[in-house]
Amino acid sequence: MKTIYRYYKDTEVSVLATKIECPYCGEEWMEDDMDEPGATYTLTCDDEINEGCGKEFEMHFDAS
Ligand SMILES: [Zn+2]
After folding, report:
1. Which among 4, 35, 45, 64 could disulfide-bond with 52, CB atoms 3.0 to 4.6 Å apart, if both were Cys?
2. Structural domain tally of the chain?
3. Domain that includes residue 23, residue range
């Protein structure tokens, strides 16, 4: 079996975190993998660190 070696110089950021802001209470947090252009995501304001308001809302992501 062949072996390859990778180092830190071979790494790159593959997950883009999107800054979310709750339209109800203004709570802000980051979500990973929510960067599909034209996609609509349903989110719940239930941040584990800072307590959110628990309300659901939609987030639409666009490329520009
Ligand atoms: Zn909220």
Report:
1. 45
2. 1
3. 13-60
Kindly give the distance from the C-alpha atom of residue 44 to the centroid of ligand 1, in angstroms, as a whole number: 8
| CA of residue 38 to ligand 1 center, whole Å | 23
How far is ligand 1, taken at its centre, from the CA of residue 29, in Å?
A: 10
Report pLDDT for 49: 66
In a domain, 8, yes or no: no
Q: How far apart are the CA of 25 and the centre of ligand 1, in A?
A: 4
Report d(CA 50, CA 37) in Å as an integer: 28
Q: Average model confidence (pLDDT) for the chain? A: 90
**Residue 43 is encoded by which pair of tokens?**
């989110």
- The H or E element that residue 17 is part of is strand 17-21
- In tens, the pLDDT along 27-51 reads 999 999 898 999 999 999 986 666 7
